[in-house]
Amino acid sequence: MDTSTQQQGTGRTERVVVVTGAGTGIGRATARAFARQGATVLAVGRRPEPLDGTAAGFPGIRPLVADITAPGAPEEIERTAVDTYGRLDVLVNNAGIAGGGPLGTLGREVIGPLLETNLVAPVLLTQAAVPALEASGGVVVNVTTTVGQRGWPGNSVYPATKSALETLTRCWAVELAPRGVRVVAVAPGAIETPIADHMGLGPERRQALREWQLAHIPLGRIGRPEEVAWAITALAAPDAGYLTGTVLPVDGGALVS
Fold it and tell me: Considering the entire predicted model, what is its pTM?
C-alpha cells in the first residue's frame, strides 16, 4: 500500500528517496529531479565535495558520505533514511564503476571491485531497504546499461555485472510483488558522464569510444544525464504503479539499431 502523502495545497508528493552514486552524472541529475518533484533525497557517495555540489541550491537533498561496498554500509544508509525521515519510498541503485579489459588482461584486482560495486552492493542495499519499502509501498530502481544487452569487445566484465543487475530486477519484481514493492530498471546507453574518465582512457581512446558509440546511435547524439533521470523518476512515480520487472532503455535507439 502506498502511504505517500501530499504537501498541503501543492499536489507534490512527499517521498523519501535514496540515490547512490549521487555525486556526479546520472546520480546527481536524478537526485535533483526527485528534489524538484518535492521529494526528500538522501544523496549517497564516497566523496563529500561532489555531493555538496549535488545538494547546492536544493534544500531537499541531504548528502551522505558512504562507500556502498564497505561492511555495514547498506544498513547504515537504510537506517539513516528511516531514522531521519521516518520512511523510505524509493531506492535508486545507481552507483557503479566501469573498467576491465580484454581476456588475457583480467585479474582479480580488476574483476573484484566491479562485482562488489555493481552487483554485490545493490543486492545488500536492496535487502536492507526492503522492510522500509514494504511499509511505504515503495520502488527499487536499478540503473544498468544497454551495452549489457549487446556486446562490448574488450570490456566484458562491466556489462556482465549490469546484465546480472537486470536479472535481479526481474527476479525481485516477482519476489517482492506480494509485499507491495515494485522493482524496475533503467538502462542508459551512451550518456555524457565522467565514467569514461574513470575508466582511465586516454584522449585518443575516449575519442575512439565516442565515435564508435555515435556510429551505433540512430538519434545521432550522446544522451544527457537529465534524460536518464527523467526515466528514473517516471518509473518510480505512483502513476507507474502497474509497472514492475520493466527494463527501460534510454539510449537513442542504439539497442534496436
Answer: 0.91
